[in-house]
Amino acid sequence: MPASRERIFNLPTVTKTVIVALTATQLVVAYGPLEFSNWLLTTFAFIPARVTLEGGAEYATMLTYFFLHGDWTHLIVNALALAAFGTPVERRFGSARYLLFLAASAFAGALLFLALHPYEIAPVVGASGAISGTMGAIVRFAFTPGARLADNRGSPRTPYDEESHFTSLSQLPLNRQAMFFLVAWLAVNVLLGVFPQAVGVSSAIAWEAHVGGFLFGLLFFNFFDRAGRHALSSQ
């Protein structure tokens, strides 16, 4: 009996589709007619001052900025991060909840940026805020013994829910691996915001949007996770 072949790109549906959509959008922006590319960027990029002063339909840009990227490097980094961190979250949440989660994380990232820079005129683009949301969600289950992506050392000092395999917010400070990831992630993003030249980026990095998306994923994990929702309803 021939051995089954493992697919090279074993990505779940929404993660794969989103990466294709981001790539298609970047192709249009990079190689489409210049006038049309400029219209896409000026219409769908998130510009905080425009949202603050005009409101209305401009709030929609707090979602549409997700599909736009500054250049191919920006897109490739985000696509790889989405494949790595989005895949386990989609498999845990299910496709429909995961899609809603990505949108909510992107909006949360833009919302924090807007709160801190309400009159900023520089456009904000990229899927980083939503991807940061997946990283925040992963903190809640990837380091929990028995959960997907977790190791099985079963340390008695590491708290977890035996039925649902996620770490509650109250137990999170006791999970050393999760806390190390959380603190390291926050430190790296703040440093990137202060010293973007360290990674060869000449323009500013909207690290505030990353933090907003990450905190959303961390705090609202239970609302999108089936096991988490069951735990909430039984409280």
TrEMBL record:
GO cellular component annotations of the record: membrane
Transmembrane segments: 72-89, 96-115, 121-143, 178-199, 205-224
UniProtKB keywords: Hydrolase, Membrane, Protease, Transmembrane, Transmembrane helix
GO MF: serine-type endopeptidase activity
Membrane topology: Multi-pass membrane protein
Family (UniProt): Belongs to the peptidase S54 family.
GO biological process entries: proteolysis
Record-given protein name: Rhomboid family intramembrane serine protease
Source organism, top-level taxon: Bacteria
Annotated source species: Methylocystis hirsuta
PANTHER family named among the record's database cross-references: PRESENILIN-ASSOCIATED RHOMBOID-LIKE PROTEIN, MITOCHONDRIAL, RHOMBOID PROTEASE
Gene3D superfamilies attached to this UniProt entry: Rhomboid-like
Domain Peptidase S54 rhomboid: 58-220
Pfam families, sorted: Rhomboid
Localization in the cell: Membrane
